[in-house]
Amino acid sequence: MTNIDRTKPVLVTGATGFVAGWLVKKLLEEGFTVHAAVRNPDKKEKLQHLDKIAASSPGSIKYFKADLLTDGAYFEAMQDCELVFHTASPFFLDVKDPQKELIEPAVNGTKNVLESVNKTPSVKRVVLTSSCAAIYSDADECAQYPNGELTEEIWNTTATLDHQAYSLSKTLAEKKAWEMNKSQDRWELVVINPSFVLGPFLNPAETTSESFSIMKQMGDGTYKMGAPRMGIGVIDVRDLAEAHFRAGTLPEANGRNIISAHNTDFFEMSQKLIPKFGDKYPLPKKVAPKWLIWIVGPIVNKGFTRKMVSKNIGHVWKANNTKSVKELGMKYRPLEETMVDTFQVLVDNKII
Ligand code: NDP
Prior knowledge:
Helix 5 links the parallel strand 7 and strand 8. By secondary structure, the protein is an alpha/beta fold. The protein has a single domain, classed as Rossmann fold (3-Layer(aba) Sandwich), CATH 3.40.50.720. Helix content is about 35%, strand content about 15%. Helix 1 runs parallel beside helix 2. The chain has a seven-stranded parallel sheet with strand order 3-2-1-4-5-6-9, with helices on both faces.
């Protein structure tokens, strides 16, 4: 149970990211001084949205240069902070060398950040952005649990370097964080486990998140022959920022927290776009059969392997978000609002 002093600075790692952008916005609006750790503070086009928000908010922002793979890189940025949000981690599905591109930055990066936390006496709480990917690899796993639901008690035991390597990176990184938290008693760890994140991109031209690529494909004609019934969960990035904020500032926040608003699938998600955008864009109007996705999936996205197709398409995805509602007081917005607002950003920025 930690009370955070709101006059102290707060560190956000990976501040250029899709998820972190909305968290930084929330912190600035709440009047915090944000220490924004970014890989390259000279790349102004990656920071312009944050500067703009800071200019019209009560809080302020200061940039620090830091890479996950450079030992001690985050030490300076966390000095005087009581609260550290560690969001930085690569999120791509199409990778050539998963060990180098995903596992090392995620796991060694988390270790690196927390080693600096161990050396920084002001830090009282760390909020780690993990993922539902640290709970499961494929939707077909849901059926084996009571009620067919994923819960905070479950850990991913199926991800490997060859199958769902991103999920492996998130699982190993979260495990490392708990191991380091348990070996000391000064700082608390609160973990956020989001499902698939959508919602308005604050800096669409510079967004690298897989969320962006998948949403773009929904509108660029990739699925015009139909969208798969691929079971996933969805959370709006604006609600996810609120969850991070509450995990950081509510004294009683604790443990792992599934942050997921909707148990859904690709086809259902796409249909939320039809009333507003169906006439103008090549949106999917029917369900794509599993055999078709099995054939074309790996061509569309190399990360979309045949094993992934068979274990996710046609399988119901379900997670239990009760802890987030009861303990963090989360209220989730409707799926339609998330889908329409995300798509609108792509339209307004002529991305589709
Ligand atoms: P983004 O790609 O938008 O953000 C990733 C961030 O990590 C960027 O700021 C990126 O910096 C930073 N980063 C990556 N590699 C390094 C490195 N070697 N050193 C320093 N920084 C690095 O993705 P998201 O916003 O979607 O993801 C943010 C977090 O949320 C991640 O931890 C991800 O696993 C998690 N998450 C995301 C979900 C989603 O659906 N989007 C679902 C569940 C969890 P740079 O801008 O310089 O590349």
